[in-house]
Write a structure and sequence with these properties.
With 320 residues, the chain is an alpha/beta fold. The protein folds into two domains: 158 residues, 3-Layer(aba) Sandwich (Rossmann fold), CATH 3.40.50; 141 residues, Glucose-6-phosphate isomerase like protein, domain 1 (Rossmann fold), CATH 3.40.50. The strands form two sheets. It has a five-stranded parallel β-sheet, sandwiched between helices. Strand 6, helix 10 and strand 7 form a beta-alpha-beta unit.
């Protein structure tokens, strides 16, 4: 899996092509149906293009919207494998309502349905990697479907701009610091997608529990759960907090992070600060993701576990 992480920037060399492009309709609203790593490109698009009305749907069927709004919506079904149960159901629901649809997949049932029904779709490269590692491919495909040509040009710079070696050093160092701990990742609301993705990487690649939350909401509830006293001292020792700091965050959010960090450290809690760095939003997002990739990779290898496969997910799918 280390080779997959090292090669990640090369995904932005990919030139997506839309099949049945003449069937792709422009709509006021966008529904992106996806699960797990396949939903992440939608999260990133919503973060990068706040002027678009994007709803991320992680469930069966369709999100609740009036019939009139649904008629003005494009439903993009994303499944890396093409066989995700919930995404197939969402696509079928959209087809039943005669909504405008589009598909992104490497193959599977979803791609077969796209071909059968003449739906606009992008077939992304199937390189044998896990869905969570194919974010570059899927994001490029999604931006192509949404007509974000300028953004496609901008992300091409990531091939050279992302410093994989530096990310590996930072990730490996972090993995050492959190060894034996449960990471809790904090960020601003604006960077919620990044914090959530860190949590997912520690779960799937690191094979450990991990959680996340955002400022300022956590100062009104979660924080009090870590007001460590003698009876809860052993509980507090289980966690390691990672604060994702962004120089572009609201000054009051930065102040909240500083104060929260001090309060936690005064109570003997372990706190790490990681700066979100990059000349562009794309660099900020994906360099941070690379650090998380390496931190979770070294976390699992330290434990003697396979960082790539997710056997419990496979077991669950068989059972349902």
């Amino acid at each position: 899996m280390d080779a997959t992480i090292k090669d990640f920037p090369k995904q932005f060399e990919y030139e997506p092509h839309i099949e049945n492009a003449d069937r792709l309709e422009k709509k006021k609203h966008i529904i992106i149906a996806g699960m797990g790593g396949s939903a992440l490109p939608g999260d990133i698009a919503k973060m990068a293009f706040p002027f678009l009305d994007i709803a991320i749907h992680r469930d069966y069927g369709l999100p609740y919207r009036s019939d009139s709004k649904l008629k003005e919506s494009l439903c993009v079904a994303i499944s890396y494998s093409g066989n995700t149960e919930e995404v197939l159901d969402a696509f079928d629901a959209a087809e039943q309502k005669n909504l405008s649809t589009a598909i992104i997949a490497t193959g599977g049932e979803l791609l077969e349905r796209a071909k059968e029904k003449g739906v606009a779709h992008v077939k992304i490269p199937n390189t044998g990697i896990q869905p969570r590692m194919g974010t570059g491919f899927m994001l490029q495909a999604l931006m192509k479907l949404l007509g974000m040509e300028n953004a496609l040009v901008e992300t091409k710079t990531l091939v050279e701009a992302l410093d994989v070696d530096t990310a590996e050093k930072e990730g490996k160092t972090l993995a050492e610091k959190i060894r034996g701990k449960v990471p809790i990742i904090y960020s601003s609301v604006e960077n919620k997608v990044i914090a959530y993705n860190w949590k997912v990487k520690f779960n799937e690649t690191g094979k450990i529990p991990a959680f996340y939350n955002v400022f300022p909401e956590l100062n009104h509830n979660e924080m009090t759960g870590f007001d460590i006293k003698e009876p809860t001292k052993k509980i507090g020792e289980m966690f390691h907090f990672i604060f994702l700091r962004d120089r572009d965050d609201h000054p009051k959010i930065q102040k909240r992070m500083d104060i929260c960090k001090k309060l936690y450290e005064d109570r003997g809690l372990h706190v790490e600060t990681m700066a979100l760095e990059g000349a562009t939003l794309w660099e900020k997002i994906f360099f941070s993701f690379l650090i998380a990739d390496w931190a979770s990779f070294y976390t699992s290898t330290h434990l003697g576990l396979d960082p790539e496969q997710v056997p419990m997910v496979a077991e669950f799918k068989k059972m349902i």
